[in-house]
Amino acid sequence: MKQSFTILGIESTCDETSAAVLQDGKKLLSNVIYSQIDEHKKYHGVVPELASRAHAAKIATVISEALQNYTIDCVAFASGPGLPGGLMVGRVAAETLAAYKQVPLIGVNHLEGHIFACDFENGEVKDRLRFPLVALVVSGGHTELWYVKNYGQYKVLGKTRDDAAGEAFDKVARLLGLPYPGGPQVSAQALKGRRDAIAFPRPLLPGTWEFSFSGIKTAVSYYLRDHQNFSIPDVCASFETAMVDTLVTKTLQAAKKYKVNYIAVGGGVAANSLLRETMQTRAKEQGKTVFFVERKLSSDNAAMIALAAYKKLEYAQQTGKPFQANIDIDPNMKVRSW
């Protein structure tokens, strides 16, 4: 890479349309995010067709606001995993801009971006991550544990077998009649409830690194069916505690098994206060250091896409390995080592 290298990143995998400009892999010059919450709120979840239309309607404006008068050397976009329509909108926009600017185009894995986002601090890349580490990617669409030897060197230990953690929060919120998105609503109610009021299950799935949250959701449903005079704050507090306990326990068990001292937590659910507090406290007791993504970069955003692209380009330069642009979109994209 040349001495000064600026990347425009584009994110459109689900219900945020975002563009960001990252300079030299260090300074975030812009990060514009358009959220589609209002479009999906009345449906209590993301409607793929509506999401695609919203991306198409907003992406040119979002890119223009992020790009301003910056000179870019590369365009990066999230090529998967995600909703097919949103991925296609992002790719077409990225291809068009790269052709117009006559710069290279690179596709990156959206989930890698969630982990790399842990390197940001106050708008700058501080390279905070230390390796090897165990990574927890926890969002509305994904819940996964990885062993990460270094940037681009991964082993996926386990995924959710059914609902992702954020999806479970949204479904429980809907059962309780709380507005979408459900995660913040459940957490707000939980602050007023007793965390030991109801003994919801902890699906630890011994012998695997996988997750399964549909059982907790079903337990909440049965509890509401069988108790007419329930306390919404107590249900939320007990549910949130069961979810967090499961996520933290599995992550720390993996860190112990793989003998690592560092943990990274990224994705939208990483903004959850109880998860952050519990993970930090229990990790410290075991001599582990946790790197959480900053809350403002925990949801889907293009800053993490631009950084993932920069790391891939830097890796190719340092190793001399052939660079793979990977511009084919894949809604079910797997995490692979570079």
Salient structural properties:
five-stranded mixed β-sheet, globular, 20% strand, alpha/beta, 338 residues, 10 helices, 41% helix
Word description of this protein:
With 338 residues, this protein is an alpha/beta fold. Helices cover 41% and strands 20% of the residues. The protein contains ten helices and twelve strands. The chain has helices at residues 37-40, 48-67, 84-101, 110-116, 165-175, 182-190, 214-226, 232-257, 273-285, 302-319; strands spanning 6-11, 16-23, 27-35, 74-80, 105-109, 120-121, 124-125, 133-138, 143-150, 153-159, 262-266, 289-292. It has a five-stranded mixed β-sheet, with helices on both faces. β4, α3 (84-101) and β5 (105-109) form a beta-alpha-beta unit. The chain is globular and about 65 Å long. The protein starts with 5 loop residues before the first strand and ends in a 19-residue tail after the last helix. The relative contact order is 0.18.
Helix content, binned percent: 40-55%
Mean model confidence by pLDDT: 96
Number of helices: 10
Largest sheet: 5 strands, mixed
- Whole-angstrom Rg: 20 Å
Tell me the total number of β-strands.
Answer: 12
Strand content: 15-25%
**What is the N-to-C succession of helices and strands?**
EEEHHEHEHEEEEEHHHHEHEH
- The gross shape turns out to be globular
Distance between the termini: 18 Å
Q: Which structural category do the helix and sheet elements fall into?
A: alpha/beta
Widest sheet: strand order? 3-2-1-4-5
Contiguous low-pLDDT stretches (5 residues minimum) are: none
